[in-house]
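WARN retry 2 of 3 for item q-0093 after timeout on previous attempt; input resubmitted unchanged.
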Amino acid sequence: MNTSTLNKSLLVIGRILMGIIFVESGFGKIMDFDGTAAYMAAKGMPMVSLLLLGAIAAEIGGGLSLILGFRARLGALALFLFMIPTTLIFHKFWGLEAAESAMQQIQFLKNLSVMGGLLVVFSSGPQQPGLDNLLCGCCCSCAKESPEDTVTA
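OK item q-0093 returned
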C-alpha cells in the first residue's frame, strides 16, 4: 500500500469515526426530545424547539456527510460552526464548583479537539474518497472541484 492510498484510507476512517458521534448524538436528541429541550431551556436557550430541531438536523446531516463522504467538506464546516456556540453555551467550565468545572473543561477540550479534526477534513480538499467521487461518473479519485471546494481568502 503506497503512502497516498494509506493517507486516503486514514482520512476515510477518521471521517467515519468523527461522524459517528454526531449521528449518535442527533438520534439521542430525537429519542429524548423533551429531556433535551428541558436541558436547553435550563441553559437559557430561546426558541428551544426550533433550535433543537436545527441541532438534530446539523448533527445527523453533518455526521452522515462525514461518514458517507458526500459533501464532507461542507458537512465538516457546518459542524465546526455548529460546535462553536454549542461548546461555549453548554460546556462553560469557568465559575463552576471544582468537580463540575473539571468535567465541563474535559467536554470543552474534547469539543475543541473534534473541531480541529473537522478543520482537517475541511482542508483536505476535493480528493477525499467517498460518495462524491463515486457519483462524479469517473473511475478514479476524481480531482474535479465543485464550487464548495474553492475557498478564497
